[in-house]
Amino acid sequence: PGGPRYTNRLINEKSPYLLQHAHNPVDWYPWGQEAFDKAKKENKLIFLSVGYSTCHWCHVMEEESFKNKEIGEIMSKNFVCIKVDREERPDVDKVYMAFVQATSGGGGWPMSVWLTPDLKPFAGGTYFPPEDRVYRVGFRTLLLRIAEQWSQNKDALLENSQKIMEALQMHTQIRGQAQESPPPSEEVMATCFQQLSKSYDEEYGGFSEFPKFPTPVNLNFLFTYWALHRTTPEGARALQMALHTLKMMAHGGIHDHIGQGFHRYSTDQQWHVPHFEKMLYDQGQLATAYTRAFQISGDEFFADVAGDILLYVSRDLSDQAGGFYSAEDADSYPTAASGEKREGAFCVWTAEEIRALLPDPVEGAPGATTLGDVFMRHYGVKEDGNVSPAKDPHGELKGKNVLMARCSPELTAMRFGLQRGQLDALLRQGRERLAAARAQRPRPHLDTKMLASWNGLMISGFAQAGAALAKEEYVHRAVQAAGFLRRHLFDPASGRLLRSCYRGQDNTVEQSAVPIHGFLEDYVFVIQALFDLYEASLDQGWLEWALQLQHTQDKLFWDPQGFAYFFSEAGDPSLLLRLKDDQDGAEPNANSVSVTNLLRAACYSGHMEWVEKAGRILAAFSERLLKIPIALPEMARASAAFHHTLKQVVICGDPQGEDTKDLLRCVHSVFCPNKV
């Protein structure tokens, strides 16, 4: 009584996402030999469901289908059901996502794929509603149809899956020729700039109408483009596009004005109503982007936003052992007594709540103006809520407000006859009171998985901000996290990185029973982080470890025939394809960052074959870089570093001497992208 009615074998896993499904009435298996053997032995199809713990639609499909006893029975009777956390096993996710995108023209999570017993996909999609709808077939219907197909047309299904795999193999190949040279950097940079310029939103910034994503890779490209074309109109436009986008994002609802940090993306053009989950990889990359904006513009506004992101991560995403957690969920219980989670419940406000929290009269303002009046005016709060029904399909935000700086501080101050300093103090007071009230609400689920790759991105954020803003405490936090990686996500015996570890009972750090080895992105983002940390701290140990990991990366992932790096190691029979990513997305493509890493490594070590490898990666992606560099802005940026060669800055002097520190501060204060 009072306990869960069902428990399946996911209860033995460490991933927060798999544990969320441990009490479904479904006979779930984790990805592994036990499930594969069962499918072969019983000649059953596999149903593969891939998602992650802070994914809104994954929660919806679980509530509707995986918690439904009848649907669970159909699943368990007809299929071997496998659950995968895409953040733990991005290699598995990428193989089947390539299939779903090629066959349905779209992709996303939850990903639902049906496989033959030898793991070949033949049908798939993303979210399915439980029952048939006007234009959509329901999940129950699909399960029954596919089970019937398997019992009646097994041979046709097997033949079809074989053809699909052969087509995928051809479609996903990225190869360079031995004699091929890298594409001309000037042309790649110019085309990428033109394509970004065309898709740019002049009014609100960003590179699409909606949904709008932060895309730090685009912003970093524009900063580098500006640095190489400072005196041209194109250079000026590149800088304006990047700075305006960062300003509009910081004013928008995608930025958490009360709890700091950035949400995943905006559902509208104005950056107003977000999908509320917060991901570590966004915080790391945006801290770097806002730091660079400050270096270039000297505008303290950008430094403040970078500081705000790092405050959020230090407070809410940090493990006491030094690592960084993966994410915070979008959904939470509105009150402790609620039975149902709602998206954004932790972050949104009614006008009434704000009035009650901020009743103080404001000195010097006309009439009976309260702190609530000033706060509501500045952050666009409306009596009946400020979220348009079109952006709230489930009615979860009806009557609620997502805070967004609607006016400039100057305008708000003028409206209430206040001095600018007085207004800043009032708004700060209002934010602090709302933060205290929000702390009483039930918090969203925290994904306490710690990934090497995302920890790498976050270490870069802390190290670069620490160096550029001259904040020793940020560099110290980066050092702590790098020490954590060394202790918990590195195997000194084999010299290899591990993918993930987890916060266990009593806040200890735990490993899964069978540790997952690092993928290409783990090496690439950790190596980049170690170079950034070396430059911020000048502790040579980090540099030596980076070079050691670069050798290991070459050994495990380099493709000697077609060049560039594979995403996963060779030798895993359950992986049907060894892929190379071909675009920079929410995170940069690992091959893109590898180009810059290899150039930095060569500069520090004098090991010149690394320069040659960098050129070969650019050559392998040559066609894409010349036609649609907007898909690879980080690699386009790296191609400039390859062609211009890196500047070397050497500082001589006593490391503890004030004059040496002044020289270092001088170097760090300037944005100069291609230097060591």
From TrEMBL:
Gene3D superfamilies named in the record: 1.50.10.10, Glutaredoxin
Family matches, as Pfam families: Thioredox_DsbH
GO biological process, one term: carbohydrate metabolic process
InterPro entries to which the protein is assigned, alphabetical: 6-hairpin_glycosidase_sf, 6hp_glycosidase-like_sf, Ssp411, Ssp411-like_TRX, Thioredoxin-like_sf
Superkingdom of this protein's organism: Eukaryota
Residue span(s) of domain Spermatogenesis-associated protein 20-like TRX: 7-169
PANTHER family the UniProt entry points to: SPERMATOGENESIS-ASSOCIATED PROTEIN 20
This protein's name: SPT20 protein
Native organism: Crypturellus soui
Species classification: Eukaryota, Metazoa, Chordata, Craniata, Vertebrata
The encoding gene: Spata20
